Amino acid sequence: MKIAVLPGDGIGTEIVAEAIRVLDALDLSFEMETALVGGAAYEAHGHPLPEATLKLAKEADAVLFGAVGDWKYDKLERPLRPEQAILGLRKNLGLFANFRPAICYEQLVGASSLKPELIAGLDILIIRELTGDIYFGQPRGRRTAVDGHFPGAEEAFDTMRYSRPEVERIARVAFEAARKRSKRVTSVDKANVLETFQFWKDIVTEVHKDYPDIELDHMYVDNAAMQLVKAPKKFDVIVTGNMFGDILSDEAAMLTGSIGMLPSASLNSSNQGLYEPSHGSAPDIAGKGVANPLATILSAAMMLRFSLNQAEAADRIESAVKHVLASGLRTGDIWSEGTKRVGTREMGDAVVAAITKKTITG
Ligand code: IPM
Ligand code: MG
User: Fold this and answer.
1) Same domain for 5 and 115?
2) Which of 92, 128, 84 is nearest to 265 (CA)?
3) Is 268 marked within a binding site?
4) What is the pLDDT of residue 362?
5) Which ligand does the CA of 10 lie closest to?
6) Whether residues 102 and 244 fall in one domain
7) Which of these three, 221, 247, 262, is where a domain ends?
8) Quick one: pLDDT at residue 358?
9) Low-confidence ranges of the chain (pLDDT < 70)
10) Which of 105, 135, 162, 275 is catalytic?
11) CA distance 90 to 148
């Protein structure tokens, strides 16, 4: 089994280092190879996703990814910006199914900006289509308008589009995932305005005929955004397109109060996957040793379960994380009165210790 390790930028290197120590502690035999990605790759090779990095990712069974991006690259032309690396990996590896769980950990209920009763026990799975929609739709660009409100003016445009097979396959992923949970899927669209999403809604409804045991409902994206803060526990599996999924998954992650805890997986049709924390590169705290490594450590667990066929090892990591939280250790992002504040390394140490069953301090 081969893992491509792509730490990236900002806190990426620190948090991935801890996930690797946790993987090492499992005593399984993986081959791990590290490569540069994002701004770090741009600095070294002039491109955020160098050929060698892409080749490594393609050949691996799974990619463990940290985070990319830094404000200092905002002025670069678009193809050279760090974010292009993640988009390029999604596209080149065909990683169309993005799993973004939003779970509220019992011990962290107080860290949410919502009232505890609204989010205690929250467990939502957002399934975001990841290789289509306005993110990748062609044509896109800039030109002189020939029509619209200001003919002759400069304009920019992107294309929202979905093909039938793209919607069918993500709908199936969502129904299958719901089967292993509480058997409810909410498909989020904007069918009242957009042709693309009327098409989406029609196809999800058709595919649903193969899953009579699953309850399906449809919701407009604006309403979904509202319901997520009003009554988030009403949701189980949410399936939606790339753009809406980008927005709603940040909203859902934040309302758990534990964005530093949330892993994610992006899979292709052969279960090859890219695993990354749901949070970003946090350049403001990079290099300070204070970032929360748990989302990345839990992403490594998802990797073991989904791509490497090591469910038992995944369980060991997840139990270790729960144990560490129960013992009261917290990085700054999830710290509250009465708990012990620790840094990135100490948090990693504690998870490793829980895995190898040594005493945990604190
Ligand atoms: C995400 C991020 C990316 C996206 C960016 C970094 C390209 O926001 O994974 O949600 O928009 O998909
Ligand atoms: Mg996003």
Assistant:
1) no
2) 128
3) no
4) 41
5) 1
6) yes
7) 262
8) 60
9) 358-362
10) 135
11) 34
